[in-house]
Amino acid sequence: MKSKLPQVGISIFSQMTALANEHGAINLSQGFPEFDAPDYLKSQLSHYVGEGQNQYSPSAGVPSLQAQVAALIERRYQVSVSGQEQITVTSGATEALFVAIQAIVSEGDEVIVFDPAYDSYEPAIELAGGKAVHIALTAPHYQIDWQQVAASINPNTRAIIINTPHNPSAKTLKPSDLEQLKQLLNQHDLLLISDEVYEHITFDGLPHLSALTDPALFERAFVISSFGKTFHSTGWKMGYCVAPKQMTVEFRKIHQYVTFSSFTPAQLALADMLAEHPEHVDELSGFYQQKRDVLVKALASSRFTLLPSEGTYFLLLDYSEISELDDVAFCRYLVEEVGVAAVPLSVFYQQAPKDKVIRLCFAKENQTLEEAAKRLCQL
Ligand code: PMP
Ligand code: GLN
Predict the structure, then answer these.
(1) What are the residue ranges of helices labelled H in the chain?
(2) Mean pLDDT computed over 132-136
(3) What is the signed CA dihedral for 128, 131, 132, 133, rounded to 10 degrees?
(4) Domain 39-277 has what CATH class?
(5) For a disulfide at 112, which of 12, 102, 127, 160, Cβ 3.0-4.6 Å?
């Protein structure tokens, strides 16, 4: 059969997790929490399943969850959006990204993505008939050169995808980034997809700068988030998209034919969680900052150079003092010989730079992080 995605293989996350399991290694590769979702959230899910809430929800989402997400946005960002008209519940941020891309990209359109880029963007762009234009950011700062972005824009450019806090670099965009982004979007009449799945995980008092908070950005934006990251429930595959009304109309036309609706009991449980336990979201940054610090401290005596982690649950390590291997070979060596699985950064690039950098996920129990660090310190 002719492949529509001839370049695409098995995702690095599936590959590394399988390899970690095969070798009994500590899995700091695929990004998912080792700890469980909150008890209250789990008990509400059981409650709604038991109560018989097991049929389709409205396509755009259960109204109580739309309302709770609108309240969360109001509380966190002092921005007022309509749950009913602007928030669509999706089956994970992955579905929201896919749908947003299908809604705006047509044959021949170009979309600017920043490498290292999350792996689901490009296939979605290609399936829509578009082309991803990659701009590479490099270690250790992963700074966007906005002049380079400006130079990449042409009459076919339709949109820019940003991700802040950023997976895998763990960097956050700063006010000057958003200013320059805004100027380019306005000047060239482009749309924005803002992947904010780690919006509630920023460190050292750094604010998350959401595209929701600037009207001139939000009027052109699909803002996408994930309950999986916020509520330690990646396996539930629940997320949402917030967008201006007319863009939401177009988004929903596609969403209704991708999944129609998302898992009803989880939507009801998440609405209750947001209403009854607002502190969970407020405490998330502190919770993960403590984990980051445990890992950073435990690696202090290693020969790795640790890059700053400003948000997300990832930490980048530069291993150029340790090995000449390329990062894919180094990760294979780590999993087979050292007993720790990590992700090589080069797989997030179209054209990988020479950086010798790997990604560790620290959404793990402290003792797991300490044991992994102990192994890595032996190198
Ligand atoms: N975007 C980024 C940057 C991510 O890291 C992830 C999760 N790994 C997603 C999107 C997808 O989120 P979800 O699991 O809710 O589909
Ligand atoms: N987002 C997770 C990561 O970056 C993995 C998601 C997936 O496995 N598709 O590791």
Answers:
(1) 12-23, 39-51, 63-77, 83-86, 92-104, 121-127, 146-152, 175-188, 215-218, 227-230, 245-258, 264-276, 278-298, 327-333, 366-377
(2) 98
(3) -160
(4) alpha beta
(5) 160
How many Å apart are CA 93 and CA 96, to the nearest integer? 5
Distance 60 CA to ligand 1 centre (A): 20
Give the ranges where 117-174 is alpha helix by DSSP (H): 121-127, 146-152
For ligand 2, is residue 312 a contact (CB within 6 Å)? no
- Please answer whether residues 195 and 163 qualify as being in contact, where contact means their C-beta atoms are separated by less than 8 angstroms: yes
pLDDT value at residue 130: 98
pLDDT at 106: 98
62 pLDDT band, cuts 50/70/90, is very high
CA 134 – CA 261 distance, rounded (Å)? 32
Q: Which residues does a 6 A CB cutoff place in the pocket of ligand 1? A: 31, 92-94, 118, 163, 167, 195, 197, 226, 228, 234, 237, 239
| End-to-end C-alpha distance for the chain, whole angstroms | 46
d(CA 208, CA 199): 6
Q: What distance in Å separates the CA atoms of residue 172 and residue 207, rounded to the nearest whole number?
A: 9
Would you call 343 helix, strand, or coil by DSSP? strand
Distance, in Å, from the CA atom of 278 to the CA atom of 272, rounded to the nearest integer, reads: 10
Where do you find CATH 3.40.640.10 in the chain? Answer: 39-277
Give me the CATH topology for the region 12-37+279-377: Aspartate Aminotransferase, domain 1 (3.90.1150)
Start-end of CATH 3.90.1150.10 domains in the chain: 12-37+279-377
Question: Residue 94: nearest ligand to its CA?
Answer: 1
The closest-lying atom of ligand 1 relative to the alpha carbon of residue 94 is 16
Distance CA 316, CA 319 (A): 10
Which pLDDT tens digit goes with each residue over 80-103?
Answer: 999 999 999 999 999 999 999 999
| 264 alpha carbon – ligand 2 mean position (Å) | 24
Read off the DSSP letter of residue 364: S
Sign (positive or negative) of CA dihedral 244, 99, 62, 212: negative
